[in-house]
Amino acid sequence: MSDIIAIDGLSKTYESGFTALRDVNLHIRKGEIFALLGPNGAGKTTLISIVCGIVNPGPGTVLVDGCDIRRDYRAARSRIGLVPQELSTDAFETVWATVNFSRGLFGKPADPAYVEKVLRDLSLWDKRKDKIMALSGGMKRRVMIAKALAHEPAILFLDEPTAGVDVELRRDMWNLVRGLRERGVTIILTTHYIEEAEEMADRVGVISGGEIILVEHTRTLMEKLGRKELRLQLAAPLEAIPAGLSDLNLVLEGDGHELVYGFDARHDQADVAGLLRRLGEQGIEFRDLRTRESSLEDIFVDLVHNRRTGD
Ligand SMILES: Nc1ncnc2c1ncn2[C@@H]1O[C@H](COP(=O)(O)OP(=O)(O)OP(=O)(O)O)[C@@H](O)[C@H]1O
Fold it and tell me: What PROSITE patterns does the annotation carry (predicted)?
């Protein structure tokens, strides 16, 4: 896959003197779903806003489908649809007029059939004659997406697309994102719902303190950094881990009722059978056992935390 966005050596210091991005290098591949994860204030919106031409870039280069965002601003911008975090649209216009106007802004000829399809995909067709101000918050968000798609962009940025939206809209949103990807649209999203990134994204990038600290295939990341856990519900509570088992990575939880064995997903041949045998030798019985793999959320929290504490 070729790169549709190439960010190299990008930094950004706001007029206040605050440096929001430091030497960011990030290449997004054509047709992928890329999730940008980071704690509040990490620089996600700043990065997206620079690529979309809303915030002035600092040093470094950004190419969008080969177009330099400074030298070739209009061409670069025309490749992009942006669904911002905040709703911003002309409240007095109808849905139909708003979406068609957005298309016109990019110099695209009118295409009512295309706009109809976008509105239908977003369950907005019945609302096309309604004024935006008369719509519910969820419907307004759908309009923001329709606006972003109006000029048939090759790249769609979704900044916190599902923050505060209901389950139905979330589901529609992800169906839409999958449909767009099938048509070759590249999707970059920021999200606080890490399980969504885990489910949706081909690759994830983690940003913290204005620096990209990791970019990885979602699955590889889970395999590389994920941990597995075996949880045993004990028949009788233990006060402490028996000395004979102290060489194992065991933790007691639930007032001594639960024994947790943690091991690296990389070595998933970890000796579970050996552990169970040794428990038997110690006379420790259990009623139930469960395994759990760490989620992307666990991995993310570890990464950002380690970065902050310098581990
Ligand atoms: N116009 C500005 N002037 C000065 N500082 C700014 C400006 N815009 C953003 N910042 C600062 O830059 C940092 C990064 O902000 P940004 O909005 O990019 O983070 P974010 O990762 O999108 O966070 P969130 O998840 O909270 O939306 C923050 O500390 C913010 O206060």
Answer: ABC_TRANSPORTER_1, ABC_TRANSPORTER_2
Predicted confidence band of residue 99 (pLDDT cuts 50, 70, 90): very high
**Ligand 1 atom 29 nearest Cα:** 41
Q: What is the ipTM of this complex?
A: 0.95
- Give the SS3 label for residue 221: helix
227-293: CATH number: 3.30.70
For ligand 1, atom 4, the nearest C-alpha belongs to 14
Q: Tell me how far apart the alpha carbons of residues 154 and 66 are, in angstroms, rounded to a whole number.
A: 12
What pTM did the predictor assign?
A: 0.78
Q: Is 38 in the pocket of ligand 1 (CB under 6 A)?
A: yes
Please state the domain extents for the chain.
3-222, 227-293
Q: Between 3.90.950.10, 3.30.470.10, 3.40.50.970, 3.40.50.300, what CATH number should domain 3-222 receive? A: 3.40.50.300
Strand partners, 286: 234
pLDDT surpasses 80 at 86: no
Q: Is the CB of 14 under 6 A from ligand 1?
A: yes
Give the pLDDT of residue 44.
Answer: 92
